[in-house]
Amino acid sequence: MSDTPIDQQIQAEIERLRLAFPGTQDLYREACVLLFFRFGITPTANKLYQFVRKGSMSAPSEALAKFWENLRQKSRVRIESPDLPEDLRAAAGELTAALWTKAQACAQAGFENFRAQAQAELGAVQSALAAEQAQALDLRKRLDEAAQAADRSGQRFRDLYSQLEAERTARSALEQSLTQARNEADETRQALEDTKRAFSAERDQIRATAELEKERLRESEQRALAEIERERSATARMQKYLETFRRSAQDAEERQRTELKALQTELGQVRQQLGTVEGAHTELQAARIQLLDELVSLRAAAQENAAARALAARESELALARIETLARENAALQLRLATAVRGKPSGVKAKLTRPRGKLTRTIEAKR
Predict the structure, then answer these.
(1) Which among 32, 65, 152, 283 counts the fewest CB atoms within 10 Å?
(2) SS3 string of the chain?
(3) What's 349's domain CATH number?
(4) What is the pLDDT of residue 149?
(5) Domain count, the chain
(6) Can you give the pTM of this predicted structure?
């Protein structure tokens, strides 16, 4: 539709008529009257539909035909009613017929033009509609494929999420096992350190006791030598006993040194095994990064780690048992030393500690 001021004015009037005449034929009839009588425009079906745009394609043609019929009838009444001469009435009839014929021709031409345009527009609309339908089918097909792909993706995501949760659970369990293994290794290391400190303290105590006993023996020997000068036989017996006692003490000390070296060797083996366990822990930490590809190997390594921990714990128990055995042997040795000093087998020491006069009396009695 043109945007000229007349067309805009006609459109405004038709919009006003649209409110006053809601019926389709009534609205087209009033539009014909508006165009023909007010604006001097011969109404056509195409022009009427261009301004009104209501109803089907045949509505403006039907309304236009009725308009011309009513106009023809009204014009005929106006001509035949007055008393006019015959020739004037004939001229008026011919003029009316000519106008009617011309109006009919214009209306028919407009109708044919409108029909051709409508058919062309209808064909274009049908072609566009077919194209839109094909595109809609294509889009629907793509949408279905996308929905199926989305469903597959969602299922894949759910599967991956389930696998991720399982792997997270396995990883958490593995980390807990690793933490427990570390704690156990730390406890084992602490127990070994405590055992080592206790053993060192006990060894120092044994050495101090042995040194004290040696010092006491040296003092006893010095006191005995002062008196043995006058009794060679008693001196020989006492020296023999002292030599025997010295060898026993040396043998005991040598045994203690041997056992101490063996215990230190065992402690070194335990430390080496503990280092092996720590190495297994380190390998477990490195294997955790390759959890997805080497899960079976990691479990085997975890089992080997558990076996190593059990072995380390067993060896620690054996070491503790050996330490307890050594402590008992040390206690027995101390008891033997105490017995050698105070008991029957150590009667010579008792004689050595007696007063000088009593020892002299004993020697003279023997003579």
Answers:
(1) 152
(2) CCCCHHHHHHHHHHHHHHHHCCCHHHHHHHHHHHHHHHCCCCCCHHHHHHHHCCCCCHHHHHHHHHHHHHHHHHHHHHHHCCCCCHHHHHHHHHHHHHHHHHHHHHHHHHHHHHHHHHHHHHHHHHHHHHHHHHHHHHHHHHHHHHHHHHHHHHHHHHHHHHHHHHHHHHHHHHHHHHHHHHHHHHHHHHHHHHHHHHHHHHHHHHHHHHHHHHHHHHHHHHHHHHHHCCCHHHHHHHHHHHHHHHHHHHHHHHHHHHHHHHHHHHHHHHHHHHHHHHHHHHHHHHHHHCCCCCHHHHHHHHHHHHHHHHHHHHHHHHHHHHHHHHHHHHHHHHHHHHHHHHCHHHHHHHHHCCCHHHHHHHHHHHC
(3) 1.20.1270
(4) 85
(5) 2
(6) 0.26
